[in-house]
Amino acid sequence: MAKVASKVPHAIENPWHLFLAVAPHVRRILLHGETPGTGKTSAGIALAAAKEAEAVVITMRDNLLESDLLGHWMPRGKNEVTWHDGPVGYAIRRATDGHKVVLVFNELDHASPDATHAAYSLLEDAASAAARFTLPSGEVLTIPETLTIVATQNPDPKETLPLPVLNRFQVVLDIGSHVSPMILEALPEKFRSMVADGRLAAREAFAMLSLVAEGCDPYIATQAVLGADRFKDYGDALAISLAS
User: Fold this and answer.
1) Treating both helix axes as pointing N-terminal to C-terminal, what angle do 202-213 and 228-243 enclose, rounded to 10 degrees?
2) Residues 208/222, Cβ–Cβ less than 8 Å
3) Tens digits of residue pLDDT in 140-166
4) Predicted TM-score of the model (pTM)
5) Where are the domains of the chain?
6) Which of 55, 97, 180, 233 is the most interior residue, by most CB within 10 Å?
7) Whole-number Å distance between alpha carbons of 34 and 231
8) CATH match of 15-177 with 3.40.50.740
9) Pairing state between β 71-75 and 81-85
10) Could you tell me whether strands 54-59 and 101-106 are parallel, antiparallel, or unpaired per DSSP bridges?
11) pLDDT in tens, 213-224
């Protein structure tokens, strides 16, 4: 059998370019990088938009239970209860009904052991018999192919996630300190280079923009967000940019 020549003649150095290249083909991807605010969670939402899919975003916490994700019974009237889907149960149902859904798990390393257990089935290949949940009602939810999972966290997942969970991701990308192009494109041109080279965090740029949009003086907004020391270095230039 003839070998298929690679269309990529060299390694892709920017991990975001690799993400954009692989994203249309992947169902389970984990993005990590020690630097916060690089756009990992936003990438999951942007991927949903690119796929013309619905985005369901869950920020994991250490007190979040599997029932919080899948759903639970709720009282309805005096002697009646009704089932209420959690975000994962909702996402599975939507995908099962034929809708494309991107389920974004933000800060996966903060998940409780109970919630982590739910990830075993969610991250299974859709064809696997393990890719299903049995609800307390006896109803079985099967993970459909139309459900894409994007997980994000800052720490190295090898140090924080159980190996069986980590191994279930098709792709694990270390974003490092690179800022996503989606974040950069959303910023005014004068801010992009400062965010790209790390002088300014994306959240700081958006904070200043929102303060000025609310009527705050640009110099006040810049000092409040950057602090006195950093304002002395390049705050004037930023304030002028915000005022123009």
Assistant:
1) 50
2) yes
3) 999 998 999 999 999 999 999 999 899
4) 0.84
5) 15-177, 187-243
6) 180
7) 25
8) no
9) antiparallel
10) parallel
11) 999 999 999 999
